[in-house]
## 1
Amino acid sequence: MDKQDELRRQRQALKEEMEAADKLGFQGADSAGLKGPTPLDGVGARLRDRSTSGPDLTMVMDIPVRLTLEVGGSDMPIRDLLQLHQGAIVELDRQAGEPLDVLVNGTLIARGEVVVIEDKLGIRLTEVVSQAERLQSLR
């Protein structure tokens, strides 16, 4: 709960900061002799200040996500599942040597192969799914 509370506090502080910036934008327009909001007031001012290089992702960089590597899967009836024991072998729907799927919060983002680095397992990405394909999988 601590992380969620901290994120809420940060979100509230950012909201207050943006509202204060909006008020300053409106006051600047009044002193310039302009009536009512102008396109550069409030949201317009924030849009103007954004760089064209891409969206500002600093607010989402600390949000935790779940990274999962999927080796394969298998469908089986509950009868067979209950008969599994130590040493049993379950056949998966993938061939040996096929790349693993890399999922973030359940969405496929890449494929890769298992590597060993100082007695720990890792994954070397061999293919990254394009942004268009990721968006398509969300639909």
## 2
Amino acid sequence: MFESIKRLFTAETGESHPELDPHVAATTLLVEAALADGIYADCEQDQIRAILSAAFSMSDEKAARVLEQAESLAETAVDHHSFTKVVKACLDKQERVALVEQLWRVALADGEKSPFEDAFIRRITPLLAVGDRERVFARSRAEAHMRPR
């Protein structure tokens, strides 16, 4: 009886995805950043696709599959720990800082600074073992990248 209860709780806490691909976990965080303000705009989705192509060198087909899987996971996620845990374990510090910059790029893609997206990234950054200073610099780089030239 206790074993069945244990299995029930581990399935609900997100530990049912130990095989989660690090790219899918990172992409899920990008989708969650886009969803933080309650609006998942096409420009945010396009930004995520561009990140997948550039940062992870994915083909358009693979990027579409990863994004679809990440969107599905983001819809059903109850917390972010299962995703940040995988990312933290699989990406080195420099790659995690780059991911924080990508989170900012997604959040800024719609041209609006949302306090909800800001709060989401502030919550996620320590879970990725990225410091406040690095988060601020990552935001500055993302803002500079997003400015029209």
